Amino acid sequence: xxxxxxxxxxxxxxxxxxxxxxxxxxxxxxxxxxxxxxxxxxxxxxxxxxxxxxxxxxxxxxxxxxxxxxxxxxxxxxxxxxxxxxxxxxxxxxxxxxxxxxxxxxxxxxxxxxxxxxxxxxxxxxxxxxxxxxxxxxxxxxxxxxxxxxxxxxxxxxxxxxxxxxxxxxxxxxxxxxxxxxxxxxxxxxxxxxxxxxxxxxxxxxxxxxxxxxxxxxxxxxxxxxxxxxx
Length: 231
Prior knowledge:
The protein is α+β, with helices and mostly antiparallel strands.
């Protein structure tokens, strides 16, 4: 049986220490998972359970060791950066206990949840989905995966983003409201998680706009950094 159109390529991520690739299935993103960021977005982190949205897998932009051009998307005048640690799953299931959830993690990477903030804010006011704000092409820059077998499970360490050399976001992984294990457990109550799924685990405070011609450097302690030139 032949496909009626050419099969689209599957997004894959490079893996540190090997030429093997990690195929991506779904991309889940948690919202407001650092208390200071929740407050800057007008929410009360002490009262909210976690919530999630999704990006298309082909909205990821794979970034290597060299600076990479990042396209400024259409239909926005307020394009925001959000640096995040990303967890990649090699296992899955439903109703996964938090106590064993990390057994399903293959590795971790530096990522960015780039956001057309003006479109997201408009969607919030109109009680509409966030897709136009969150799912633009190339809106998920991500670096290579660092396998758990090499680095373990990062639970603390600096997470930062700079624009033109000035630090704009600075936090610590230990400041997450919901841990990676808790996020996996929560998601698995609503979805059948499977190998290839990614979870963008939240961003610290300091999110803000970036302009064409500016350079962003996103870093997570132990996972290196990725550099993007906005064009």
